[in-house]
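Running this now, will post back.
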Amino acid sequence: MNLSYFIAKRISFKRTGGFTGTIHRIAVASIAIGLTIMLISFMILGGFQSVISEKVFSFTGHYQVHRFVLSKSLEDSPTSKDSYFYTHYPNFDFIKHVQAYANKPGLLKGDEEVEGVIMKGIGPDFDSLSFSGSMVKGRFISFSDDGTSSNEVVMSTKVANKLLLDVGDRVTIYFVQEPPRFRRLEIVGLYETFLEDFDDKIILGDLQTIRVLNDWDEDEVGGFEVFVEDRRKIDQYAVQLYDLLDYDLRLVKATDKFLQIFDWLELLNNNVYVFLGLILFVASFNMVSILFILIMERTQMIGILKALGATNKQIRKIFIWNGMRIIGRGMLIGNALGLAFGFLQEKTRVIRLDPENYYMSFVPIYWDWPVFIGLNVLILIISTSVLFIPAMIISNVNPIKSIKFD
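Update: finished.
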């Protein structure tokens, strides 16, 4: 057996009591608490980014492709499904799904209130599965097979509450055009994203209704929403999509259209990285301090080992092995606590949030295993590396003086 490792085991806190045992426990606790906090931080950060991003993308796709116009009208100009982009996008493997849409502003009239909204027309190709996470009541729109328009709509709970409406009610929407037109709509579902850009003004209706109102042909739509396989590569895929566009179409990334949301998420990233740096610094400082204390307490032992012929390298390994055992035990406890918290929060959602400020009603959890593994490796490398700093003073210990040390 390795002599240094054997001695390190003999002086571990399980085999010693009093002051040494207390120091070992403090060291283990500092590593465990630091790792637990970092794991929870990355779980929650990843949860925020994932939940909010998916809410945005489920409404708009990762990109929007529409007609290039100079006006700032809320109403879309028509583009054809026979465009080069729409007929050739299946040739690109990174494109997961493309769906057609059209926007048309109008005035929604309840029994007592009037609310300005934008009716977003969608069709059977709409990714209702991605959107289902935002549905809170009722069902999604049913589209007819014969091409006739449906008068069913899904609106936000915020708009419904303002107009004192609920699922099953009928409401009238007026469209400002020549000649003015209106439609009687049935509310079949309510959604809630807690994002003002959507909840305040967007209602979902049938794309065919907007075609009829705008006198468009059957192949004309307001634009296309594009979903890709890996949303982390949005900037990279955009370069390839630009080459696919017709001369009169433009590509808008969702991350640019809702820049304030994604900038806020990026700011959260920076905060966590600063937090990570501080915790690593504190953990490293604690390990150096604790190992210094352990070396001071074992000064007599160091002197005796030197007198018996042990080399400085062998004695340094004793304390490095001891420190690594402390780090390993602390990381094991820290991982157990952090992952247990994530599991309980994901299953019970016991920690709630104010959706008005955080865009969701509970603390989300995201399991990013590569990040968790990388975090463990980073702590192990840094904490182990700093162990060599206090261990270097062992070479300066005088055997005669240290044996007399009390």
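The chain has a mean pLDDT of 83. More later if anyone needs it.
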